[in-house]
Amino acid sequence: MTLEHKFCAPETVLQVTDGTEISGYASLFEQRDQGGDRVAKGAYAASLAQLKAKGRSVKMLWQHDPAQPIGVWDEVREDARGLWVKGRILTDVAKGREAAALVAAGAIDGLSIGYRTLRATKDDKGGRLLSELELWEVSLVTFPMLPDARVAAKAEDPGGAALRDLAAVFTDAAAALRQG
Protein backbone atom coordinates (compact mmCIF):
# COMPACT_ATOMS: atom_id res chain seq x y z
CA MET A 1 0.00 0.00 0.00
CA THR A 2 1.75 3.12 -1.25
CA LEU A 3 0.67 6.63 -0.36
CA GLU A 4 1.27 9.00 -3.27
CA HIS A 5 1.73 12.76 -3.31
CA LYS A 6 3.55 15.11 -5.62
CA PHE A 7 5.12 18.57 -5.65
CA CYS A 8 5.84 21.31 -8.21
CA ALA A 9 6.53 25.05 -8.35
CA PRO A 10 3.65 27.37 -7.34
CA GLU A 11 2.14 29.89 -9.75
CA THR A 12 -0.19 32.08 -7.66
CA VAL A 13 -0.30 33.74 -4.25
CA LEU A 14 -2.52 32.46 -1.46
CA GLN A 15 -4.85 34.82 0.36
CA VAL A 16 -6.74 33.81 3.49
CA THR A 17 -8.94 35.94 5.72
CA ASP A 18 -9.02 35.53 9.49
CA GLY A 19 -5.79 33.53 9.20
CA THR A 20 -7.53 30.23 9.88
CA GLU A 21 -10.41 29.54 7.47
CA ILE A 22 -9.30 28.20 4.11
CA SER A 23 -10.94 26.71 1.07
CA GLY A 24 -9.98 25.81 -2.44
CA TYR A 25 -9.44 23.04 -4.95
CA ALA A 26 -7.03 20.33 -3.88
CA SER A 27 -7.44 18.56 -7.22
CA LEU A 28 -8.86 19.57 -10.60
CA PHE A 29 -10.36 17.03 -12.96
CA GLU A 30 -8.71 16.33 -16.31
CA GLN A 31 -5.81 18.74 -15.71
CA ARG A 32 -2.40 17.19 -16.27
CA ASP A 33 -0.12 17.64 -13.26
CA GLN A 34 3.68 17.99 -13.35
CA GLY A 35 4.02 14.19 -13.31
CA GLY A 36 1.75 13.78 -16.33
CA ASP A 37 -1.23 12.39 -14.38
CA ARG A 38 -4.87 13.45 -14.73
CA VAL A 39 -7.71 12.74 -12.32
CA ALA A 40 -11.02 11.56 -13.80
CA LYS A 41 -14.34 12.99 -12.64
CA GLY A 42 -15.73 10.81 -9.87
CA ALA A 43 -12.33 9.43 -8.83
CA TYR A 44 -12.90 10.40 -5.18
CA ALA A 45 -16.60 9.49 -4.88
CA ALA A 46 -16.26 5.99 -3.42
CA SER A 47 -13.50 7.04 -1.01
CA LEU A 48 -15.49 10.01 0.30
CA ALA A 49 -18.60 7.81 0.70
CA GLN A 50 -16.62 5.20 2.65
CA LEU A 51 -15.11 7.82 4.95
CA LYS A 52 -18.55 9.29 5.62
CA ALA A 53 -20.08 5.85 6.30
CA LYS A 54 -17.33 5.13 8.83
CA GLY A 55 -17.63 8.55 10.49
CA ARG A 56 -14.06 9.41 9.51
CA SER A 57 -12.61 12.41 7.72
CA VAL A 58 -9.84 13.46 5.36
CA LYS A 59 -6.92 14.75 7.40
CA MET A 60 -5.39 18.23 7.10
CA LEU A 61 -1.62 17.88 7.30
CA TRP A 62 1.39 20.14 7.04
CA GLN A 63 3.55 19.25 4.00
CA HIS A 64 2.20 15.65 3.92
CA ASP A 65 3.73 14.88 7.33
CA PRO A 66 1.39 12.50 9.20
CA ALA A 67 3.00 13.60 12.48
CA GLN A 68 1.90 17.21 11.85
CA PRO A 69 -1.87 17.60 11.63
CA ILE A 70 -2.61 21.33 11.55
CA GLY A 71 -6.37 21.58 11.29
CA VAL A 72 -9.59 20.00 10.12
CA TRP A 73 -11.36 19.83 6.80
CA ASP A 74 -15.00 20.64 7.53
CA GLU A 75 -16.07 19.94 3.95
CA VAL A 76 -14.49 17.78 1.25
CA ARG A 77 -16.53 17.22 -1.89
CA GLU A 78 -16.35 16.63 -5.59
CA ASP A 79 -18.05 19.11 -7.88
CA ALA A 80 -17.97 19.54 -11.65
CA ARG A 81 -14.49 21.11 -11.48
CA GLY A 82 -12.63 18.93 -8.98
CA LEU A 83 -12.06 18.14 -5.31
CA TRP A 84 -13.05 21.17 -3.24
CA VAL A 85 -12.08 21.50 0.42
CA LYS A 86 -12.99 23.92 3.18
CA GLY A 87 -11.50 23.85 6.63
CA ARG A 88 -9.83 25.54 9.57
CA ILE A 89 -6.19 25.76 10.55
CA LEU A 90 -6.05 25.18 14.31
CA THR A 91 -3.96 27.90 15.92
CA ASP A 92 -4.07 26.09 19.27
CA VAL A 93 -1.54 23.72 17.69
CA ALA A 94 2.01 25.11 17.43
CA LYS A 95 2.48 24.01 13.79
CA GLY A 96 -1.00 25.39 13.03
CA ARG A 97 0.06 28.83 14.28
CA GLU A 98 3.16 28.64 12.09
CA ALA A 99 1.11 27.49 9.09
CA ALA A 100 -1.43 30.31 9.55
CA ALA A 101 1.39 32.88 9.74
CA LEU A 102 3.07 31.50 6.60
CA VAL A 103 -0.22 31.41 4.71
CA ALA A 104 -1.04 34.99 5.76
CA ALA A 105 2.41 36.13 4.62
CA GLY A 106 2.04 34.41 1.25
CA ALA A 107 4.91 32.00 1.86
CA ILE A 108 2.60 28.97 1.58
CA ASP A 109 -0.17 28.87 -1.00
CA GLY A 110 -0.59 25.32 -2.24
CA LEU A 111 -2.78 22.32 -1.61
CA SER A 112 -1.74 18.76 -2.34
CA ILE A 113 -3.47 15.43 -1.91
CA GLY A 114 -2.16 12.25 -0.30
CA TYR A 115 -3.86 9.21 -1.79
CA ARG A 116 -3.58 5.59 -2.86
CA THR A 117 -4.31 4.73 -6.49
CA LEU A 118 -6.99 2.05 -6.79
CA ARG A 119 -7.63 2.26 -10.57
CA ALA A 120 -5.59 3.97 -13.28
CA THR A 121 -4.76 3.54 -16.93
CA LYS A 122 -1.76 4.72 -18.90
CA ASP A 123 -2.50 7.46 -21.41
CA ASP A 124 -0.89 8.24 -24.76
CA LYS A 125 1.31 11.00 -23.29
CA GLY A 126 3.14 8.80 -20.78
CA GLY A 127 0.98 9.76 -17.81
CA ARG A 128 -1.92 8.09 -16.08
CA LEU A 129 -5.65 8.72 -15.94
CA LEU A 130 -6.50 8.16 -12.29
CA SER A 131 -10.07 6.85 -12.18
CA GLU A 132 -10.39 5.73 -8.55
CA LEU A 133 -8.41 7.08 -5.62
CA GLU A 134 -8.46 6.41 -1.90
CA LEU A 135 -8.06 9.90 -0.45
CA TRP A 136 -6.15 10.01 2.83
CA GLU A 137 -5.24 13.64 3.34
CA VAL A 138 -5.06 17.14 1.89
CA SER A 139 -1.98 19.10 2.91
CA LEU A 140 -0.97 22.72 2.87
CA VAL A 141 2.25 22.67 0.89
CA THR A 142 4.92 24.91 -0.53
CA PHE A 143 4.94 23.24 -3.97
CA PRO A 144 1.74 21.48 -5.13
CA MET A 145 2.07 19.02 -8.01
CA LEU A 146 -0.95 20.59 -9.68
CA PRO A 147 -0.12 24.30 -10.07
CA ASP A 148 -3.79 25.37 -9.87
CA ALA A 149 -4.44 23.51 -6.59
CA ARG A 150 -4.68 26.58 -4.39
CA VAL A 151 -6.43 27.89 -1.33
CA ALA A 152 -8.90 30.74 -1.81
CA ALA A 153 -9.63 33.57 0.60
CA LYS A 154 -12.53 32.97 2.98
CA ALA A 155 -14.78 35.42 1.14
CA GLU A 156 -14.06 33.97 -2.31
CA ASP A 157 -16.62 31.66 -3.89
CA PRO A 158 -14.73 29.09 -5.99
CA GLY A 159 -17.57 28.93 -8.52
CA GLY A 160 -18.57 32.58 -8.28
CA ALA A 161 -16.03 33.90 -10.76
CA ALA A 162 -17.14 31.42 -13.40
CA LEU A 163 -20.79 32.35 -12.88
CA ARG A 164 -19.97 36.08 -13.07
CA ASP A 165 -18.04 35.46 -16.30
CA LEU A 166 -20.97 33.52 -17.77
CA ALA A 167 -23.40 36.26 -16.72
CA ALA A 168 -21.19 38.85 -18.44
CA VAL A 169 -21.28 36.84 -21.68
CA PHE A 170 -25.08 36.75 -21.60
CA THR A 171 -25.27 40.45 -20.78
CA ASP A 172 -22.96 41.31 -23.68
CA ALA A 173 -24.92 39.05 -26.05
CA ALA A 174 -28.24 40.64 -25.03
CA ALA A 175 -26.80 44.12 -25.56
CA ALA A 176 -25.49 43.13 -29.01
CA LEU A 177 -28.93 41.78 -29.98
CA ARG A 178 -30.63 44.99 -28.88
CA GLN A 179 -28.24 47.05 -31.00
CA GLY A 180 -29.13 45.00 -33.99
TrEMBL record:
Membrane spanning residue stretches: none
Gene Ontology molecular function terms on file: peptidase activity
Xref: SUPFAM superfamilies: Herpes virus serine proteinase, assemblin
UniProt keyword list: Hydrolase, Protease, Viral release from host cell
Biological process, per Gene Ontology: proteolysis
Domain Prohead serine protease: residue ranges: 18-156
Name of the featured protein: Prohead serine protease domain-containing protein
